[in-house]
């Protein structure tokens, strides 16, 4: 399996996120990817590749131009406000919430942050744009590596993650939607129908939003019930898609505390839907925060269970792009991701 590894992911290193009235240390750290890389190499589970230049045309078919412009310039604007900002992360503090207008475009930077961010837990740092862009290139290149049909699977090993980022918003540690970019690249490389299967503990709200009205990309997500779990405001079972995309979104929420049995039952439901949809290629949005030891999630999967996930997903028999999403039990993160790859390739 070719593994497109983001060589500049360290450039994105958030210091703090807002949590229950305090700024706490970020969970989404550079060390995460280092653990995965070490374990994959130790087990000989793939060949590393560097991404090429990002295809900005493809990015613009998934993300809004003003949003991309904002991400590209926000750090410079932040520094221009105050040179002391160099030592601080960018976090929003005001939003166009209830009763306020979303259609105005205030020049004020805080106001712009509130238009594009949906939480106060996703710090932007000096290297966020560089890292996110290289990650997007990993996802696109991993998809294109399958296009020839010569290979069964490829991986985008990157951070920051992507599945919470929508066409024109960020949050949940995500800025560019790598899985959506991979799906779009597969479509443009000739797959008529593509499925995105999101197994991260948190609902992939950004991916759902991006494809919600499209019939050519099926989005399926298995996740903690949003009535108690992040991102709270999307991810319910009654969200089925809209317009031409009606029936092309499937949410399989499970109660916090769920173990591997209900989780694997939901996976079978997901796989059956992907089969009947007639997907010709698959993107696996691979978060391993369903692991019992995960510090911010509440399923109870064990490390061995990730082998079975890889086996079941491989049984679809589809060309597959694995895209790294969440997983925060840093020491076990490498083992859990490597187990999925091992199960997939077994
Ligand atoms: C990103 B991904 C913890 C609060 C949780 C956001 C979680 C984002 C998860 N103090 N805040 O889906 O793994
Ligand atoms: Zn997650």
Automatic annotation (TrEMBL):
Pfam families tied to this protein: Hist_deacetyl
Record keywords, A-Z: Hydrolase, Metal-binding, Zinc
One Gene Ontology term of the molecular function aspect: hydrolase activity
Domain of life: Bacteria
Keyword Transit peptide: no
Biological process annotations from GO: epigenetic regulation of gene expression
Domain Histone deacetylase: 28-342
Cofactor: Zn(2+)
InterPro entries in the record: HDACs, His_deacetylse_dom, His_deacetylse_dom_sf, Ureohydrolase_dom_sf
Family, as annotated: Belongs to the histone deacetylase family.
Name this polypeptide is given: Histone deacetylase family protein
């Amino acid at each position: 399996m070719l593994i497109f590894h983001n060589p500049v992911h360290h450039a994105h290193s958030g210091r703090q996120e807002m949590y229950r009235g305090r700024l706490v240390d970020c969970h989404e750290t550079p060390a995460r990817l280092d653990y995965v890389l070490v374990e994959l190499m130790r087990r000989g589970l793939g060949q590393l590749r560097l991404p090429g230049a990002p295809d900005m045309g493809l990015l613009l078919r998934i993300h809004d131009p003003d949003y991309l412009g904002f991400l590209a310039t926000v750090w410079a604007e932040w520094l221009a406000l105050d040179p002391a900002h160099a030592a601080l992360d960018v976090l929003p503090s005001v939003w166009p919430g209830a009763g306020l207008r979303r259609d105005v475009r205030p020049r004020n930077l805080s106001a712009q942050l509130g238009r594009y961010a949906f939480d106060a837990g996703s710090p932007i740092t000096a290297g966020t744009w560089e890292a996110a862009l290289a990650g997007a290139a990993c996802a696109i290149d991993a998809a294109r590596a399958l296009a020839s049909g010569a290979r069964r699977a490829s991986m985008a090993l990157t951070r920051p993650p992507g599945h919470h980022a929508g066409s024109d918003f960020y949050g949940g540690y995500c800025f560019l939607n790598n899985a959506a970019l991979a799906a779009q690249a597969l479509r443009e490389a000739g797959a008529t129908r593509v499925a995105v299967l999101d197994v991260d503990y948190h609902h992939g709200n950004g991916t759902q939003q991006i494809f919600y009205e499209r019939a050519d990309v099926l989005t399926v997500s298995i996740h903690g019930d949003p009535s108690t779990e992040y991102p709270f405001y999307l991810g319910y079972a009654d969200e089925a898609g809209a317009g031409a995309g009606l029936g092309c979104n499937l949410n399989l929420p499970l109660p916090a505390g769920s173990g591997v049995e209900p989780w694997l039952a939901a996976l079978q439901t997901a796989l059956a839907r992907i089969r009947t949809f007639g997907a010709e290629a698959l993107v696996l949005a691979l978060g391993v925060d369903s692991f019992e030891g995960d510090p911010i999630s509440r399923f109870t999967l064990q490390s061995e269970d990730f082998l079975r996930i890889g086996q079941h997903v491989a049984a679809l028999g589809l060309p597959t792009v694995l895209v790294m999403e969440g997983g925060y039990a840093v020491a076990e993160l490498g083992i859990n991701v490597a187990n999925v790859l091992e199960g997939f390739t077994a």
